[in-house]
Design goal:
Length: 377
Amino acid sequence: MQLSRRNFFRIFGAGAAATATSGALVNLASAAMFEPPRSGSDNFIRLNSNENPYGPSQKVTYAMQDALVAANRYPYREYGDLTDAIATHHGLHSEQVLLGCGSTEILRVAAATFCGPGKRLVQAAPTYEAIAHYARLSGAEVISVPLTPQYAHDLDAMLAHTGQSEGLVYICNPNNPTGSLTPRKDLEAFLGKLPANWHVVLDEAYHHFVSPSAAYTSFLDQPARDERIIVCRTFSKVYGLAGLRLGYAVASKDVVNRMEPFITEDSINAIAVRVGVTALSDQKGMQEAIKRNASARQFFLDQAKARGIQAIDSQANFAMMNANRPVNDVVSYFKENKILVGREFPAMPNFLRVSFGKPDEMQTFWRVWDGLPMARG
Ligand SMILES: Cc1ncc(COP(=O)(O)O)c(C=O)c1O
């Protein structure tokens, strides 16, 4: 196992000073943006980045305030505390958990570890683009396979592209931007056929928003006996901590050891690493966020239906609807009206992704939509 500074302090305590392998860094100079700009103190309604519009729960907000006093210290010991808390939360060993500066860091590290020249990343189209971006930077070929007509991953077609000796499959479930599910039984069958040297990233960023369904079971709630799976989770969505930047991967000990050297040293800040422990344990706050989102989702789907608009049944905190026109025009129109909505996903150029905001924001969204020339579906 590579001995990172993070692990060093977990194992030997904060008294010793050491640095270790920093790992190969991908070239970020040419990094393209895969999410629209998120900052600014303007008056825009933000329905574009699948954030939690309410922010963290009260308990987590207090924990953030308490954590501020630790900002002058490197949080070496706390890395271990959060890793242990995540492991306990999921009934795992701590060696199976890897912390990231957002799950974006986990996606970058997965690409750095398992992609590279001569290798492939196989993913859906459309899907969340970050890992493809990092896979390309690593020199890998990226194959994007259209979703099925039910907006699930087309696992047979994806499998057909895994013939090479090594590579990575990215599966986002529920999928961003469609909010749709790929059934667990299909994923199990896919894993049974996947060539031995391929790894799979299962991105469960939107896991908490899935309505109870026989078709879906998280790979953390019910792990598959497969050493090649990397499950990603984030604190950016249900926990309302997108700005704090915290995510994690769960994988076999061996896979974590392979990925760990590519993590940026000390990339988790002192506030996030403390607050993460509180957020994980705050069941009440999480349930409230899930409930609020379910009602926002129902409102959105009802409003779309009332207008005869085709909306994809969502299992996330956003939904995609057929705007019946080039979506970039719609995005610009909303921007002129001080509302930020999702960007174009080239595989579905007429579909608009809308993140769910607060009730008044969603009322405004529909009022502005109705002002769009020929807005009805
Ligand atoms: C599917 C998916 N994975 C990962 C991320 C990145 O999340 P984080 O804020 O944890 O970096 C996002 C962000 O929107 C996402 O939609």
